[in-house]
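A sample follows:
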Amino acid sequence: MKAAVVTRFDQAPQYRSFDLPADHRPHEEVVSVVAAGLHPRVRSQADGSHYTSTDSLPLVPGIDGVGRTAAGELRYFVLPDTRLGSMAELTVIDRRRSIPLPAGADPVRIAAAMNPAMSSWVALRRRIAFAPGQNVLVLGATGSAGRLAVAVARMLGAGRVTAAGRGAERLAGLGADATAALDGPADALAEAGRDIDVVLDYLWGEPTAAALRAIVPGRPDDERPLTWVQLGSAAGLESPIPSAALRATRLQIVGSGQGSVPTREIVTELGELAEAVARDAFALETRAVPLVDVESAWAEARTSAERLVLMP
């Protein structure tokens, strides 16, 4: 079969042949891939930088997608750690890690939106004790996952949603109740953080340390809990967290991602999330690209505002 194949971590995948495994475990089946999203998580898988990565090559990237079963059913699937990802004509799924798609769902939109929307959805539903009416700040709200997090937080009952990121104009179009431009006035985050209960952090690195230094001293009630959820590392893999922030307020820092939330709990959330994506509850620009053009798509994804989806 044909697939996007990574043979070196320092170069883009290439369109070439890859062997489908002959043996399958119980609950596994071969599906024809209909659409696979080119997410930042997939890029880190392909360059070996993700925390789950190994040195095993060659590999086919892709961590989720939409596939058609032998019976003709369309299913959204999430793959385990495997060398055979979703960017191929065929892949092997575990039915226990998949769901049937709602009638009329657009496979391209499902493949594009599920992964980035899942990060905030699962964090608020499964990783922390989030209560409707709590106020949420999305740090890194202008990225694709951050933009969706604004909508997800509102859908799940947030009382007030604040979008924080670079570019006041970009922030203004996200539909948040308030914005805080990280490249704007120095006191913007301090003001935004006064009544925040939960921070969904897609940046990490120095921006997180700076945000904590700005937010913690300005909170009028030090006893009000502040839950900081680490979801991404767009600004750096490590952050110099100020020690005073951990002592000066009721701050809890947790991570949400592969490993910190059991797979069975993630799968439990997929159906409701897929229904929301299918009814266009989230604004997301998508574009389908033929799998044969994977190398050019890989380069374009670095700067494109659209979520690219590969289709065999």
User: Anything to note?
Assistant: The chain has a mean pLDDT of 93. Residues 28 and 312 are 21 Å apart (CA to CA). Residues 2-114+283-311 form a domain with the Quinone Oxidoreductase; Chain A, domain 1 fold (CATH 3.90.180.10). The chain has nine helices and 15 strands.
